[in-house]
Amino acid sequence: MRIVIVDADAMNAKFLTFVLAEAGHREIIHANSVPAALRAVFSAETDLVLLDLALPEMDGIALCQTLRERGYTGPIIFVTQGGTTQDKVRAFARGADDFVQRPFDPGELVARIGAVVRRAQHQARQQASTELRVGDATLSMSDLTFQVGDREPVRLTPTEMQILAHLMQSSGTPVSRKRLIERTWGVDFLHESNRVDVYIRRLREKIEPEPSSPIYVRTVRGVGYVFCPPEKSSSAPPQSRGTCPHRCCRTLGRAPARAGRGVRRSVLQSLSATRAPRHKAPLRQCASTGATRAVAQPSSARARCATGHS
């Protein structure tokens, strides 16, 4: 589980990290400012945010609202010093899932985190139990089909459907191979990282207009994969790699890995197909020796013979 701690106090963050590590959590990120928090939450799929009220740029409640407005749907728990009843009411109104005041019992905090995460996961399963829509893409859980706009639905296997569902639920945010393995097959298969790549290749062969140059399921070098949703009600053909207008590519600041290879290949093929054939100069034979040599001619006269006739 990926947890982001947002706290300007390094000692508080260090203590929280220790408590979470003792409970078995390993992926813990500390952000000490609002910009750092936004980068940490949206740079990869985040399962939980632990938030303090007192931050340098704005109060934690305003940041909580910003996270919700920008599309973060995971649990947010305030872990803070003090806090009035008014603060709690405002925090819950802006999207918080729980409010824990310092000093706290470490065991109680871990229990609260477990309860909030289970509740969030249950809600996510209920929402995705029948149909998942992102942009103009629809994933139907009941009949295992994927459809973009009014195109023909594509039939998927249960495993392909699970992987695509995880990516669509985190649309625009890269999902690591490790996370996909944990959610699809379980922790016992973490050592088989190439398993994900095999299924992603099969998935692309089914849903992508050009599997060698994917536009929906893209590779993020060193991270994993990201789902780039097609725009709604768009009759135009899908955009090529490297020109994705969605948050996934803008957040990363660059096109996904291997972008453009298919484009370069197609350009080279087009150039070789349209290149004019090389003109062969006429040969002249020497009357005395019998040797032959090429005769240079101006381009305007290449199609004419020595007498000037066509």
From TrEMBL:
Alphabetical GO biological process terms: regulation of DNA-templated transcription
Ranges where the Response regulatory domain occurs: 2-117
Entry-linked SUPFAM superfamilies: C-terminal effector domain of the bipartite response regulators, CheY-like
Domain of life where this protein originates: Bacteria
Keyword vocabulary terms for this entry: DNA-binding, Phosphoprotein, Transcription, Transcription regulation, Two-component regulatory system
GO molecular function: phosphorelay response regulator activity; transcription cis-regulatory region binding
4-aspartylphosphate modified-residue sites: D52
GO cellular component: cytosol; protein-DNA complex
DNA-binding positions: 129-229
OmpR/PhoB-type domain location: 129-229
One Pfam entry name: Response_reg
PANTHER family: REGULATOR OF RPOS (PTHR48111), TWO-COMPONENT RESPONSE REGULATOR ORR33 (PTHR48111:SF1)
Protein known as: Two component transcriptional regulator, winged helix family
Organism: Sphaerobacter thermophilus (strain ATCC 49802 / DSM 20745 / KCCM 41009 / NCIMB 13125 / S 6022)
